[in-house]
Prior knowledge:
1 helix; two-stranded antiparallel sheet
Amino acid sequence: MANFPALNPQSRTYTPGAAPSTPLGALDGDELMVRHANVVNGYTLRLGFTGLTQAQHFEITSHYMLHGRFEPFDLDPITLLGSGLTFPSGYSWIYVKAPDTTYTPDVISVSVELELVAPYTL
């Protein structure tokens, strides 16, 4: 499993996940939550990179082309350096969508949105 490119982002936006559940209403007005699994889904991490070189931009886009939405991968420790974020062990990352690239004169900016998925075997 190939790691995400070893780049330190300028910005990180983290959204914690939640266990899949369904609310059920009772006749007396109370609401109960029925949990469907022992895993937590919906962790998202948005990474922003500014001032990339052509080679660094190619690393990110080629990684996306190889993995897309279906091939999970791990994050390089440099990507989370200094963030203090921790995630459940065994989980892997997938892309939510293609990286967004912005070109301005001499500056390449890329934003990447990732989702943490629970381990699974076929």
